[in-house]
Amino acid sequence: MQRPSRFAHIQFLGDKRTQFVYDLDTWTNTEIIDEIVNNEVGICFAPDTLPEARNRGYTLATVGDSRRHRQPHA
After folding, report:
1. Phi/psi of residue 63, each to 5°?
2. Half-sphere exposure of residue 65, counting CA atoms within 13 Å on the CB side?
3. pTM attached to this predicted model
4. Three-state DSSP class for 23?
């Protein structure tokens, strides 16, 4: 999958609404990533690692996972 231009230098993209984190190197569904970018609810982590995303309460997304979309706080 080609990374969105705004998040071109990151591997893990979080969705503030669902608290899911997507690994852009392995994720293949572009619709979800495009929706995150278009709605401006994406977040990146520093350092760009899965343990840092988990430290902030995010869970790695897998195909078929779903959660209710909540209003992002920030």
Report:
1. -60, 130
2. 15
3. 0.85
4. strand
